[in-house]
Design goal:
Largest sheet of chain A: 7 strands, mixed
Number of helices of chain B: 0
Number of strands of chain A: 11
Radius of gyration of chain B: 13 Å
Number of strands of chain B: 11
Largest interface: A-B, 18 and 23 residues
Oligomer: heterodimer
Distance between the termini of chain A: 40 Å
Shape of chain A: globular
Structural class of chain B: mainly beta
Structural class of chain A: mainly beta
Helix content of chain A: under 10%
Order of helices and strands of chain B: EEEEEEEEEEE
Distance between the termini of chain B: 35 Å
Radius of gyration of chain A: 13 Å
């Protein structure tokens, strides 16, 4: 059974930092692209960043370039999102998903709230 | 950036009806990387269709996808109560994924 579990969300002040984690099982993590997607409650989906199997190819949405860093540890079947210089508009549910031709497996999300 | 525009914003239908959802792209999209997702309140999105027309594992055959280049369609035949949800199209191009803004299928 495939499982994708995010963690690390919480309340942070504007300008602060947070690290999200995602642990996956049930598929070959080391052979899979992985991605982060976010969603403001009640709004649409926004892709944030993705990373290829060995971490040599990384892409970001313009809104987070220079502030967020995606990385992975294949020995731990884990994906990370380091978020710096957080803004109010980064408040959202952050989902981790298996990437490729599409996003076929998703976690349940972790909530990030940026507020003073 | 390739912009996906979904229409209509809301579709009000009855169980048993057919739903036809449109996704138009601002420029030609590679069909291999065109997907559709369903999302219900409080849940993560669920993959329905990938490669524009292939159903994901476990998706009923009342869901079908079609289209090419700049116009794609998700059709849901014989709507069932569990199909009332928000649907998103998605594409990969110019080294980024983009989503449409979503179509809500609600009970009339």
């Amino acid at each position: 059974e495939v499982q994708v579990v995010e963690s690390g969300g919480g309340l942070v002040q504007p300008g602060g930092s947070l690290r999200l984690s995602c642990t996956a099982s049930g598929f070959t993590f080391s052979k899979s692209w992985m991605t982060w997607v976010r969603q403001v409650p009640g709004k649409g989906l926004e892709w944030v960043a993705n990373i290829n199997e060995d971490g040599t190819k990384i892409y970001y949405v313009d809104a987070v370039k220079g502030r967020f860093t995606i990385s992975r540890d294949n020995t731990k079947n884990s994906l990370y999102l380091y978020m710096n210089s957080l803004r109010d508009e980064d408040t959202a549910i952050y989902y981790c998903a298996k990437d490729g031709q599409c996003f076929d497996y998703w976690g349940q999300g972790t909530v990030v709230t940026v507020s003073s | 950036e390739i912009v996906l525009t979904q229409s209509p914003g809301t579709l009000s239908l009855s169980p048993g009806d057919r739903a036809t959802l449109s996704c138009r792209a601002s420029q030609s999209v590679t069909s291999k990387y065109l997907a559709w997702y369903q999302q219900k309140p409080g849940q993560a999105p669920r993959l329905l269709i990938y490669g524009a027309s292939s159903r994901a594992t476990g998706i009923p055959d009342r869901f079908s996808g079609s289209g090419s280049e700049t116009h794609f369609t998700l059709t849901i035949n014989r709507l069932e109560s569990e199909d009332f949800a928000v649907y998103y199209c998605q594409q990969w191009g110019d080294s980024r994924w983009t989503f449409g803004q979503g179509t809500k299928v609600e009970i009339k």
